[in-house]
Amino acid sequence: MVSYHIREYCPGDYETVRDLFATGMSEYVPTLCLHMLKQPWVILILGCTFSLLLTSSKSLLLPILAITLLLAVGRQLLGYIWSMYIDHCLQKDLLDIQATYLGSKGSCFWVAEADECVVATVGARPSEEQPDELMLKRMSVRKDYRGFGIAKALCKTVIAFAREHGYSSVVLNTLMVQHEARAMYEGVGFRKYHHYILPTVYGRLANCTISKYRYDVPSTE
């Protein structure tokens, strides 16, 4: 069992928080690759390429090498696109964490410390869709500290903050590759209420589904 404590973010945590987020998101690349390999159009392209090369060359070696090359190029391309997404996030709310999350009473950012270092993060700010909803963002737990209940404790910290500040619910978004995160949120009490495919070219090609979750905060009355 790991001993940890949760506290508010301070400026000295800046680089560690950004690195935790970037490292955690980078871990999804293999899962994203498997997700892409299940898409019908990808299967069709690989199958047609293999069949055409096998028919024209009369050899297994060439189509196998070609498919291997296509998979390797695809892996690099997906990794590059995903890194662009991570950089985009780092240039938004994580660029100035102090101003974004600690600039008003209705938002906050927390870190979890264990073994004298920051091992997990979570932020919360008012939802852009509904002012009475608190948006949970940037949940990340270092890989070697997962499974100890830190993520659930951070979720409960956000829920308690929402209750104290009069929010009606806590909401969050998850991507289709975040299977473990969705299971954790559901275990805390969040329920999926909507999902949609990201309305961009990349979103449609990758069947990039975003699931929206909500936790209704009980009234204190």
Automatic annotation (TrEMBL):
Listed transmembrane segments: 36-54, 61-82
Listed GO MF terms: N-acetyltransferase activity
Lineage of producing organism: Eukaryota, Metazoa, Chordata, Craniata, Vertebrata
Pfam families, sorted: Acetyltransf_1
Domain annotation N-acetyltransferase: ranges: 62-208
InterPro entries in alphabetical order: Acyl_CoA_acyltransferase, GNAT_dom, NAT_camello-type
Protein name per the record: Probable N-acetyltransferase camello
Keywords: Membrane, Transferase, Transmembrane, Transmembrane helix
